[in-house]
Design brief:
The complex is a heterodimer of chains A (405) and B (234). Chain A is α+β, with helices and mostly antiparallel strands. Chain A is built from 13 helices and twelve strands. The longest helix of chain A has 44 residues, at 265-308. Helices cover 32% and strands 29% of the residues of chain B. Chain B has helices at 47-54, 77-87, 103-112, 122-132, 148-160, 178-193, 205-209; strands at residues 3-16, 19-32, 36-40, 62-67, 70-71, 88-91, 166-170, 197-201, 213-218, 221-227. The chains are: A alpha+beta (405), B alpha/beta (234).
C-alpha cells in the first residue's frame, strides 16, 4: 500500500477510538516530556555550577598549608602552617605560568563603623586578588601595592558589611575600626552572592595582606596563596611549577612529602561537572523507564485492537492483502501513536521548562540533541512494542479471521 | 471457450480434535469462461469449503486446481494473496464490508493492495464499479446507512473492481428478503451477460434455476451437474 493510504488508514482507525488513542499516547507523552525536562534540569544545574565555579576566578590555583605528620599520625590539613608572605613573593618572582599571585590572611574580627558594629571575616590580600578571583570594586578603589608595602590601614568592604555598617550611604572615605585599629574605607566590592556551600561571600572586609598579618593576626603564617594560571590548558603545568618552587622554598629533600597542597579551579570544575553529568544521566535514565512503560501501553492497546479487528483483518486478507501489508499497517498505527505522543511530549517539555525557568527560577536548558534523541526513541518504542501485535495480525489465516465472532 | 477453472480430485480434510472431517472427498470441476453456475446442497455438504478452495482462501488437502491454466493449489501465502487480489472476486453471505467506511473506500480496498498497479486510477475504477451495480448515487454512504441489498451491491462492486477472472458468491442472498434476493440475482445475471464468469452457492431452487448450470453437492462430492436453460429473470 502506498504511504499516503497507510497513514490515512492508520489515522482513521486511531480517530475512531479517540479517547483510547489519547490515553495510550499519554504514556509516551509523559515519558518523552519527563526525559527532556529531567535532562534539561540536569544540564541547567551543570551550567549553574560551572558558572558559580568560574565566578570564583578563572584558572585559579590555590595553595593551602599541608598536613603535618608526627610518628605516623596525621594532624590534619593546616596543622603545620608553613606558608609565608615570602612563599607568595617567591612565586610572584619565579613562576612563569601564572599571571597574578595573592596571599590571603584570614582573621575574624569585630568591626565598628558608622553607628553600629559587625563581626566578620577580615581577609588580608594583595591587589592581584581582584584579578585572581575576578572580584572588583563598585565604588572607590582597591588598595595598591604601595599600601601593602606600607602596611597601610585601608580597607575594602564587602557588600554585606557595607550595607550593615553604612546602610543607604557610600562608605568610601568613612572610618572604621577593626580590633580597635582605625582603618580608612577606600572601596566597596561588587556583590558575589552565596558560595557553593551556602555562605555569604559578601560578608567580608579586605585589607592589605601585610596589614592583616602584622597588625591584626600578629603571626608569621598566611592562610592561603592564590594564583591565576595563564590559561585553563596550562593550569596543570602551573600547578607543577608552583609545587617545585614551594618545595625549593621549604627546603624539602626529594622523597619528602609536600607540606602544602595545591588545588586548581580546573579540578574543582571537573569534579563538579562530572557529578552533575552523572546526575543528569541518572535523571534521564529514570525518566526513560517511564517512556518504556508508555511503550508497553501501546503494545497492550495494539493487542486489543488486533483482536477487535480480526474480522477487518480477514476482509483485507480476502481481497488480497498480504501478511506484510497488515504488519506494516498495524506497525504504522503503533508508530503514529508513539510519534504523536513524542511530539506532544516535546511541546509539553518545552512548556514545563519555560515554566521552571521563568516562574520557579530554576535553570532548565533544553538541548536540541536530547529532543531529537527523545523523539527518535519514541519512534523506536512504537516499532518495538508495535511489532508483536502487528505480527499477530499478519499471521492470521483469512478463513479463521472471517469466521471470528 | 477456454477453461477458467480446472479442478480435479480436490479433497479437504479438517482435523477437529481427534476427529478427521472430510469436507471434500474428490471434487472434479471444470468451469468455462462466461459460465453462470449455481452450487446447491444441504449444510455440511461441502459447498462453502469448495468455494473457499476455489476462491484461494484455503489450500486443498490434495488434488490439482488450475486457475486460468496456472496451478494454484500449492502457492505460498504471498502468491496466494496476489491471486485473490487480481483474479478472484469474492462475495460473502454476511457482506463483510469494513464498518464506518464509505462505499467508495470499501470498493477501492482491493486496488490498494494491487502491487501490479495495472489500474491507473483506482478511485475512478471504484466509482465505475459502484455505478455498474446501480449505486452511483450512494458512494459516500457508510454500510450502516445502506439497506441489506445495497450493502450486497457494494460487496459485488468490490468483487468486480479488480477485473477478476471469476466472481465467487457464497450464499449472497442468504441474508436478504426474497424481493431483494431477486434483484441481486438479476444483477449477477446482468454481469454474466456482460461476460463475467460467476459461481453462486445457494439454498433456493428458484435462484439456482436462474443460472445456466446447477451443481448439487452431498457429503463432499458432486452428485449432479446439470446444464439448464438459464431461465431469464424478470
Amino acid at each position: 500500500m502506498r504511504l499516503r493510504n497507510l497513514l490515512k488508514v492508520a489515522l482513521k482507525s486511531l480517530t475512531k477510538n479517540r479517547m483510547r488513542s489519547l490515553l495510550t499516547s499519554l504514556g509516551v507523552i509523559i515519558g518523552v516530556a519527563a526525559v527532556i525536562v529531567m535532562v534539561a534540569i540536569g544540564q541547567g544545574a551543570q551550567v549553574d555550577i560551572e558558572a558559580q565555579i568560574t565566578s570564583l576566578g578563572a584558572n585559579m590555583v590555590m595553595i593551602f598549608p599541608g598536613a603535618s605528620w608526627s610518628r605516623g599520625v596525621s594532624h590534619g590539613a593546616g596543622s603545620q602552617n608553613r606558608l609565608t608572605l615570602d612563599d607568595a613573593e617567591a612565586i610572584r618572582e619565579r613562576a612563569t605560568l601564572v599571571t597574578a599571585v595573592s596571599a590571603e590572611v584570614r582573621v575574624n574580627a569585630q568591626i565598628i563603623g558608622g553607628d553600629s558594629n559587625w563581626n566578620t571575616s577580615v581577609q588580608g590580600v594583595d591587589p592581584e586578588y581582584q584579578e585572581v578571583r575576578d572580584w572588583h570594586t563598585v565604588s572607590g578603589e582597591f588598595f595598591t601595592k604601595r599600601d601593602v608595602r606600607a602596611k597601610a590601614k585601608v580597607a575594602v568592604l564587602g557588600k554585606t558589611v557595607a550595607d550593615n555598617l553604612f546602610p543607604g550611604s557610600d562608605p568610601v572615605g568613612e572610618k572604621i575600626r577593626i580590633r580597635n585599629t582605625p582603618f580608612k574605607v577606600v572601596g566597596v566590592l561588587e556583590a558575589k552572592g552565596q558560595s557553593g556551600y551556602g555562605s555569604d561571600r559578601d560578608d567580608v572586609v579586605m585589607v592589605p595582606a601585610t596589614t592583616a598579618l602584622y597588625r591584626l593576626a600578629g603571626g608569621r603564617y598566611i592562610s592561603r596563596i592564590f594564583a591565576s594560571a595563564l590559561s585553563t590548558e596550562v593550569s596543570e603545568a602551573a600547578e607543577n611549577e608552583l609545587v617545585a618552587i614551594l618545595r625549593e622554598e621549604h627546603h624539602l629533600e626529594p622523597g619528602e612529602e609536600d607540606d602544602f597542597r595545591v588545588r586548581s579551579q580546573a579540578e574543582f570544575l571537573e569534579t563538579a561537572t562530572e557529578t552533575s553529568r552523572v546526575m543528569t544521566l541518572l535523571l534521564g535514565a529514570v525518566a526513560a523507564v517511564s517512556l518504556v512503560v508508555g511503550g508497553i501501553g501501546i503494545m497492550n492497546i495494539m493487542l486489543v485492537s488486533v483482536t477487535e479487528r480480526t474480522r477487518e483483518i480477514g476482509i483485507r486478507l480476502a481481497v488480497g492483502a498480504r501478511g506484510s501489508d497488515l504488519l506494516i499497517q498495524f506497525l504504522t498505527e503503533a508508530v503514529v501513536l508513539a510519534i504523536v505522543g513524542g511530539i506532544v511530549g516535546i511541546l509539553l517539555a518545552v512548556g514545563v521548562s519555560v515554566f521552571l525557568d521563568r516562574v520557579v527560577g530554576m535553570t532548565a536548558i533544553i538541548s536540541p540533541a536530547i529532543v531529537a534523541l527523545a523523539f527518535c526513541f519514541s519512534g523506536a518504542v512504537g516499532v518495538f512494542f508495535g511489532y508483536y501485535p502487528a505480527r499477530k495480525a499478519a499471521r492470521l489465516n483469512p478463513i479463521d479471521a472471517l469466521r471470528y465472532e | 471457450m477456454s477453461a477458467v477453472i480446472e479442478a480435479s480430485g480436490i479433497t479437504k480434510t479438517y482435523q477437529m480434535g481427534e476427529v478427521e472431517v472430510h469436507a471434500l472427498r474428490g471434487v472434479d470441476l471444470t468451469v468455462e469462461d462466461g459460465e453462470f453456475i449455481s452450487i446447491m446442497g444441504a449444510s455440511g455438504s461441502g459447498k462453502s469449503t469448495l468455494m473457499n478452495v476455489l476462491g484461494c482462501l484455503d489450500h486443498p488437502t490434495s488434488g490439482e486446481y488450475l486457475l486460468n491454466g496456472r496451478d494454484v493449489s500449492e502457492l505460498a501465502p504471498n502468491e496466494f494473496a496476489e491471486v485473490r487480489n487480481t483474479r478472484i472476486g469474492f462475495v460473502f453471505q454476511v457482506f463483510n464490508l469494513l464498518p464506518r467506511t464509505t462505499a467508495l473506500d470499501n470498493v477501492e480496498l482491493p486496488l490498494l493492495y494491487d502491487r501490479t498497479r495495472r489500474i491507473k486510477d483506482p478511485r475512478a475504477e471504484a466509482v465505475a464499479a459502484l455505478e455498474r451495480v446501480g449505486l452511483g448515487d450512494r458512494i459516500t454512504h457508510e454500510p450502516n446507512q445502506l439497506s441489506g441489498g445495497e450493502r450486497q451491491r457494494v460487496a459485488i462492486a468490490r468483487a468486480l473492481v479488480n477485473r477478476p477472472s471469476i466472481i465467487l458468491a457464497d450464499e449472497p442472498t442468504g441474508n436478504l428478503d426474497s424481493t431483494t434476493s431477486l434483484e441481486i440475482m438479476k444483477l449477477f445475471s446482468e454481469l454474466n451477460s456482460q461476460g463475467i464468469t460467476i459461481i453462486v452457492v445457494t439454498h433456493e431452487h428458484d435462484i439456482a434455476e436462474a443460472t445456466g448450470r446447477t451443481i448439487e453437492m452431498k457429503d463432499g462430492t458432486i452428485i449432479r451437474d446439470a446444464v439448464g436453460a438459464g431461465r431469464q429473470m424478470e
